[in-house]
Amino acid sequence: MNDVRGRLIQRMSELNLKQTDIIRALGLSKGTVSKWVSGINVPSASVLPDLAKLLNTTPDWLINGVENNIQSADFKKIEPWDENTPLDEDEVEIPFFKDFSFACGIGSINEQISKEKRKLRMSKATLRNLSISKDNAVAATASGDSMSPTIQDGDTIHIDLGRKEIKDGRIFVICIGGLHYAKRLYNMPFGGVRIVSDNAIEYPEIILTAEERVEQDFQIFGWIWQIARIEKW
């Protein structure tokens, strides 16, 4: 049971999800999810598939720690596709940017989104479960190591442009003085903000007062709700 708890907490941390996110997405009670996180109970068979989907993993991994059970009926044969392949009923296309630097002072976000030709396919159910509008969903390639090991150079980050309200500890795409970053944000008294890198040794935290936020043109562009990584051999 503790192993299930550990894997659940691991995926929640990797995706920056809190208990309230799971409660809202799956329509569960606070007590149910709290017992999972505390290790008192494990997810029931009826809710396990939806929970695994929300956490971008499989039921086998959550319960048994099995990475990829190719014998599982949950897996389907993957067919090759290109830009001409029709979308499935549960798919939408979202803009995919080489990076997010366009957002800092070079035209409006909507203008740049309309011009972007590269796309990623995304499940409607995933966006729906997280209450993310398709129009607010974009993806970009991360660069640098300031958020390592959470976000590594070359990872794909998925951003919800509709969520700009600071929730302490969440990772956001921000812009300061015309430069863009992915950082954890924390509210400070009197409108200030604390900006934290996971690689804190090389990138010390920054604190801006309300006045400094204005002076340095501090902007929040959206919440990073998913981080995707492809391992290289």
Architecture overview:
The model is unreliable at 68-81 (pLDDT under 50). A hairpin with a 5-residue loop joins strand 6 (179-187) and strand 7. The radius of gyration is 19 Å and the shape is globular. The protein is α+β, with helices and mostly antiparallel strands. The chain is built from eight helices and nine strands.
Provide a concise account of the structure shown:
The chain has 233 residues and is an alpha+beta fold. It has helices at 2-14, 19-26, 30-38, 48-54, 59-64, 109-115, 124-129, 210-215; strands at residues 91-97, 119-123, 137-141, 156-160, 171-176, 179-187, 193-196, 206-208, 219-228. The protein contains eight helices and nine strands.
Itemize the secondary structure elements and their pairings.
Layout: H1 2-14, H2 19-26, H3 30-38, H4 48-54, H5 59-64, E1 91-97, H6 109-115, E2 119-123, H7 124-129, E3 137-141, E4 156-160, E5 171-176, E6 179-187, E7 193-196, E8 206-208, H8 210-215, E9 219-228
Parallel strand pairs: 1-3
Antiparallel strand pairs: 1-2, 3-4, 4-9, 5-6, 5-9, 6-7, 7-8
Helix pairs in contact: 2-3
